[in-house]
Amino acid sequence: MRAICPDCGSTHTKKKAIRLTKNGESRRRWDCKECSRRFTTNWQTFENIDKSHLPRILLFDIETTPMTVHVWGLYKQRIPHTNILKEWNILSWAAKWLYDDEIHSDILTSEEAKAGDDKRILKSIWKLLDKADIVIAHNGDRFDLRKLNARFIDNEMVPPTPYKSIDTLKVARREFAFSSYKQDYLTKHFRLSGKLDTNFQLWLDCMDGKQDALDRMAEYNRHDVMGLEDVYLKLRPYIHNHPNLGVLMDQDVCPNCGSDHLIETEAVYLTTANVFPVFRCGDCKTPYIRHKKNNNLINTSFRSVAR
Predict the structure, then answer these.
(1) N or C: which end of the chain has fewer CB within 10 A?
(2) What is the pLDDT of residues 213-241, one digit of tens each?
(3) Segments forming the whole domain that contains residue 12
(4) For residues 51 and 1, what is the distance between their CA atoms, to the nearest angstrom?
(5) How far is CA 196 from CA 10, 193, 278, 302, in A?
(6) In what order do the strands lie in the sheet with 104-107?
(7) Is the pTM higher than 0.90?
(8) 158 and 23 fall within a common domain
């Protein structure tokens, strides 16, 4: 997974060695190929995970065009569908497989943007979704996936094969009381890969088919996916309903990240009928319940963990 240069914002960075700081923190060194800046980031323990056996986990983000409509005013207007002059369409998409350095993306050509013709790029994102076991997006359940499905059916495309969905916006809202739940806020709050600065004029220029605007939009979209991966990995230990990777891999591994670095804690999880030991993943730090114990094995000195 590539890092973003803190000076120029480029993703053209090269991974270097890991070094240990005086306070015992492991840091990954990077070289920026654009501005020649050298910088470091926190070393991620997922670099040690065997990724060859992991399910196909796709992180993605889409950008859409606004609709063109007739309105009578700007405040508290209820606009009927008969006022729509031009429907919205998919403008671009970007995606990456979890832990993979390569970012896949597609965007309308100048001619396609002017015509609002997104059929070509719909086919390319459909192929990735069709391969995925799990898909991750910020507000994906309410926006990205529903928008894509609307365009799929409009273009007589069959749905992709089934996949599980993780919506990082839902996770953030359910588990935390942040001041904001926007991806841009979360990346800045956690000092992760942030969004590029844009304004509404960029979307208008893209709809006019201006190539420099389309290039800028593609880069903006790609940065969003890198930030999404950082946010997902940060929130992952708190995702209690994460699709169980152990089931998908048919292995005894961490259900959230697939690591076999498992540590048994002194805690137990009690139900009305059974006792379960609590483990913690040594890589992603997710606490989880594993294996059932008989009631007569209850040790009253153990700390009970209840959600």
Answers:
(1) C
(2) 999 999 999 999 999 999 999 999 999 99
(3) 1-43
(4) 12
(5) 11, 10, 41, 49
(6) 104-107, 90-97, 57-64, 134-137, 164-167
(7) no
(8) no
